Amino acid sequence: MRLLPISLCQPGMRLGKKIYNEEGLVLLGEHVELTEALLRRLTQHGICFLYIDDPRTDDIVVRELLRDETRAVAMQTIRTHFRRLMEDSNRKKAVNQQIGKAFREVVGLLIDDLSRHSDAMIMLTSMQLADHYLYQHSLNVCIYATIMGLTQKLSREDLTVFSLGALLHDIGKTQLPPAILTKPGKLTDDEFEAMKQHTVYGYRLLKDEPNISLLSAHCAFQHHERINGSGYPRGIAGEQITEYARWIGVVDSYDAMTTHRVYRDAMLPHQAMEILYTGAGTLYDKEKIEKFRDKIAIYPLGVSVTLSTGEAGVVIDLNAAMPQRPIVRILQDPDGHELEEPYEIDLSKKLSVMIAAVGLHTPL
Ligand SMILES: [Fe+2]
User: Ligand 1 center to residue 148 CA distance, Å?
Assistant: First the structure.
């Protein structure tokens, strides 16, 4: 199977991987045939890429990081509680909703699933429809943070605190006026000032909550602070920002860039990573960016690439020691002719060959 921009997918192609609905349940199974109507619906839901069956690359195996049951419980818990908080005009009452217990259970399931894949490179390959960007984003940030916590061998209790902080880092957004939260374009200066308050609201919602540590509440409070003091809400710097909040700052920015928004398409992993790097040492801890880069599959399995030689193909395997230099199955010669006999190039062994373009060239 291979990963294609949805704009290049055509009716008749078959799905290579499941697609989940808003509740985290399987909407379309593997090998389902795509129709015009389905493609339109998926595009409307902001899905930018699809895994498609392809006999030339059907040996690619992309492991799901989460079990279907875990994904469903996580999405349903996030949706139910965040919605309730959005609808509840009385914030005081919202605080007494005992959200700690439900989210702690979700985090327990996520940690169990992700511990089984702690050696794997991170590829968020799940295609999921979302009725609200906030729900999917909260889960993604939690997955990234938990994997980074696992690679640093945090104790179970510390990991729970970190994962909960990541899952709930944006919970304060439920308290923003809907017109700001769901505005499809850029915010005005005044709206942006109001939006910044989600950090404070989040802290207030979490700080007295049973089952939620004050450190998790600080993830909500501090995840937009930056190490040079340029962040918000307080403009604190360096070690004044907790370690966990500095981590969430990194993975939150990465997920925001690699997710489709109404006003721009999703970036590919290598593009988002390049932008994160421009903030290494100023906005984010350099060593966190480096650790994150070493865990992220910047060229995901199945993505189309064109090499500096002009040959084009698909990433079929990753080199754990050199994740930026994957193994590519060449399907097209430099003149654009399809090869009868595809061959493979291991970029970790051919250091003179570079990846020149990713993802968006015409289907092979
Ligand atoms: Fe945020």
Answer: 19
**Distance from Cα 231 to the centre of ligand 1, integer Å:** 11
224 CA from centroid of ligand 1 (Å): 6
List CB-based neighbours of ion ligand 1 within 5 Å. Answer: 170
Q: Are 74 and 163 in contact (CB under 8 A)?
A: no
Q: Assess contact for 50 and 127: CB atoms under 8 A.
A: yes
Q: For 56-87, how does the pLDDT look when each residue is reduced to its tens digit (9 = 90+)? A: 888 988 888 899 899 999 999 999 999 999 98
**295 Cα–ligand 1 center, Å:** 23
CA of 21 from ligand 1 middle (Å) equals 24
Q: Is the pLDDT of residue 364 over 60?
A: no
What confidence tens digit (pLDDT) does each residue in 104-133 have? 999 999 999 999 987 777 776 667 777 788
Ligand 1 center–CA 197 separation, angstroms? 9
* Beta strand extents in the chain (DSSP E only): 2-5, 19-20, 26-28, 49-52, 127-128, 304-307, 312-317, 327-332, 338-346, 355-358
Ligand 1 centroid–CA 50 distance in Å is 27
- The secondary structure of residue 32, as a DSSP letter, is P
Domains of the chain: 2-57 (3.90.105.10), 68-295 (1.10.3210.10), 304-358 (no CATH)
pLDDT at 89 (0 to 100): 61
